[in-house]
Amino acid sequence: MTDITIHKGITYAERETGEMKLDLYVPKSENPPLVVYMHGGGWITETRSNIPDPERYAAEWDYAIASVSYRLQAVPDGADVEGMSDPANPTPRGTFPDHFVDVKAGIRWLRAHADEYGFDAERIAAWGSSAGGHLALLAGVVDEVTDLGDAFTEEVEKTVVPEEAGTVQAVISWYGVADLTLTDDAEGVIPLLMGGPQSEYPDRYAQASPVSHVTSQSPPTLLMHGREDEVVDIEHSRRFFDTMDDVGVNAIRYELHDLNHVWSENIEDIESERVAMDLLGADPNHAQSVYEATHVEQGRSPDSLLPDLPPAGPETIRQFLDRTIK
User: How many CA atoms lie within 13 A of 156 on its CB side?
Assistant: First the structure.
């Protein structure tokens, strides 16, 4: 197993509400690619420690892994989701699109400091779970924060190493939110995130949806989702996959039969992303279906993203990263 150098609590941005930090795990190998992880937690809770064993997978995969904090959604007193927010969470807060602004700032900062920490600035993948999956997908299909759209123009600004690119070369989404327009709730997390219901802010819902920004230049994407997910409906991943297929971008989608959010079997048993990989790998023979969109230029042979089609788990991610950014 490769030795790992760990850098914890690196400040990558100064915000009015506090310092934004990241943790970085770098294998002692020659210029490894980088995976940037965004944690789940409904955009309003959890911290960058909510990640599946980064020291282990940095070593086993031979990839640098960064877990990036992003500003969590501010929750006003009396909000119907107030009970989900942990007052003791030290992560600074803001309002959307601050979350996305921070993710892109973290990617740009990491690219600017690649030589200092010893990884490859040109080979970067975004990986996220649930709300973090939304941010990872958005990071993949929106090159820069200023491209998000007119609905957020006044709030979006590049201040952290703006000369660097915020692009990524591959994306992994675990049960990520891909299309906010699927939500018509008047209350809840997403109306809080968007500042109100979709009927009042249709442009915000559309522009904050990764599926709205997919183009033929979007990076290849691995989507993994449980068919029984009661928190983020599997239709999010299906719709994103179909859109990528329509524009000719390679993508692969795993559907885990009978699994709920965070790879639990029941919504009452949902745990954190810290143990998600263990849950996912607990039964490698768990029923699952795999859908692949492989697009080929005329005169060339198909090049599958996952030629071996391993069961969903760490080997799936490693093979996908090896095919896309190694």
Answer: 21
pLDDT digits over 75-111, tens only? 988 888 877 888 889 999 999 999 999 999 999 999 9
Indicate if the alpha-carbon torsion angle 264, 197, 50, 120 is positive or negative.
Answer: positive
For Cα atoms 185, 155, 87, give the angle at the middle one, nearest 5 degrees: 60
Question: 293, 289, 324, 319: which is closest to 306 by C-alpha?
Answer: 319
The amino acid sitting at 249 is V
Name 15's bridge partners: 18
> pTM score > 0.70 for this model?
yes
Q: 41-66 burial, b if ≥16 CB within 10 A, otherwise e?
A: bbbbbbbbebbbbbeebbbebbbbbb
State whether residue 190 is helix, strand or coil.
helix
Give pLDDT < 50 ranges for the chain: none
Say if CB 105 and CB 176 are below 8 A apart: no
Angle 198-200-202 (CA atoms, 0-180°, nearest 5)? 50
Question: CA 118 → CA 59, 105, 168, 322, distances in Å?
Answer: 14, 19, 18, 18
Looking at residue 299, its pLDDT comes to 60
- Torsion angles phi and psi, residue 121, rounded to 5: -70, -15
DSSP string, 271-282: --GGGHHHHHHS
For residue 23, give the H/E element and its range.
strand 18-27
DSSP conformational letter for 150: G
- Residues with Cβ within 8 Å of 246's Cβ and at least 6 positions away in sequence, in order, are none
CATH code of the domain occupying 4-324: 3.40.50.1820
- Residue 70: which of 96, 42, 102 has the closest Cα? 102
Domain boundaries, the chain: 4-324
91 is written with which tokens? 């992560």
So what's the pLDDT on residue 237? 98
